[in-house]
Design brief:
This protein is of the alpha+beta class and 252 residues long. The radius of gyration is 43 Å and the shape is rod-shaped. Strands 9-10-11-12-13-14 form a six-stranded antiparallel sheet, with no helix packed on it. Strands 1-2-3-4-5 form a five-stranded antiparallel sheet, with helices on one face. Strand 7 and strand 8 form a beta hairpin. The N and C termini lie far apart (184 Å).
C-alpha cells in the first residue's frame, strides 16, 4: 500500500478557523431562539395574568351591590362598596382598584370598612396585578359600567357590564341615604325599613312598632242608630197594646 500524507499544521489551523466561523453564528442562533422562547413564555404568563385580573375585576363589579365610587385622576381609582367576590373568604368585602405611581402598577385592595388612603390601624390585603399601565379608566352611566385597561405597548382591553345600579336613590342634607328598596340608612349606620323596623349598626334588630286599632266611627254610629230605632219601635208597639186600638174593618 502507498504512503498516505498527514494533515499539515496549516491545514489543521485553517480547519479550526473555518469551524469557528461556523460555530459562532450557530451559537448566536441558538441563543436568539432561547431568548425568543423566554420572551414568548413571559408574554404568555403576562397575558394569563392580565386575563385573570380582568376576570377578577369583572366579577368584583358583577357581584357588587352597585355602589361604585370612581375618582378621576391620571388613572381612575375604583372602589366597590360591597362585593361577594372575595379572594380571602370574606362574606362581603370592600374592594378598591388603584394604580400606584411606582411602575404604574395596578393593585387590588380588599378588606372591610377601610378608607383610601389607608390608615395605619386598618388591615387589608393588597395584590399586585399589572405593571406598566398606560390606561385604566372606568365609566358608570345609569346601569352600565365600561372598563378600559391598556398596558404599555399592548392593545387595550375593554369590557361592558349592564344592570349595575346604585342602590342609593338620593342622599339627604343630613347624610341620610334613601335606598331604592324603600330603606333609609341614617348617618350612624342604622337601617330603617318601610314597616318601621330597624337594624342598628351592631346588628341588633328592632321590630316594627305595633299599630293600635280603635273602634270604627262609622260602625259605632250605625250601631247606635240601630239601637235607637229598636227602642222607638218597641215603644210604639207598647203604646199600641196599652190603648187597645185595633185595625178598623169594613162592615159586612
Amino acid at each position: 500500500m502507498g504512503n498516505r500524507k498527514a494533515f499539515t499544521l496549516i491545514e489543521v489551523l485553517i480547519s479550526i478557523a473555518l469551524l469557528g466561523l461556523i460555530l459562532v453564528p450557530l451559537f448566536s442562533v441558538v441563543e436568539m431562539m432561547k431568548r425568543s422562547n423566554e420572551h414568548l413564555l413571559k408574554s404568555v404568563e403576562r397575558s394569563k395574568q392580565v386575563t385573570k385580573a380582568t376576570k377578577v375585576l369583572y366579577m368584583d363589579i358583577l357581584s357588587s351591590n352597585g355602589k361604585l365610587k370612581i375618582k378621576k385622576d391620571e388613572f381612575t381609582r375604583l372602589c366597590i362598596d360591597e362585593t361577594t367576590n372575595s379572594l380571602y373568604h370574606l362574606p362581603t368585602a370592600k374592594v378598591c382598584w388603584v394604580v400606584l405611581k411606582e411602575k404604574n402598577t395596578l393593585v387590588r385592595v380588599e378588606g372591610n370598612a377601610y378608607h383610601m388612603p389607608l390608615k395605619s390601624e386598618e388591615h387589608v390585603e393588597v395584590d399586585s396585578v399589572i405593571q406598566g399601565l398606560e390606561l385604566f379608566d372606568v365609566y358608570h352611566d345609569k346601569d352600565k359600567v365600561l372598563v378600559l385597561i391598556q398596558e404599555k405597548g399592548k392593545e387595550p382591553i375593554s369590557f361592558l357590564l349592564q344592570g349595575i345600579t346604585n342602590p342609593v336613590l338620593k342622599v339627604l342634607a343630613d347624610g341620610t341615604q334613601i335606598m331604592r328598596d324603600g330603606r333609609k340608612i341614617l348617618p350612624n349606620g342604622t337601617q330603617v325599613f318601610k314597616d318601621g323596623s330597624k337594624i342598628l349598626p351592631d346588628g341588633t334588630l328592632i321590630p316594627a312598632p305595633k299599630k293600635h286599632r280603635g273602634p270604627k266611627s262609622g260602625s259605632g254610629n250605625q250601631k247606635g242608630k240601630s239601637n235607637q230605632k229598636g227602642k222607638n219601635t218597641k215603644g210604639r208597639t207598647r203604646t199600641g197594646s196599652n190603648s187597645g186600638n185595633t185595625v178598623p174593618q169594613k162592615e159586612r
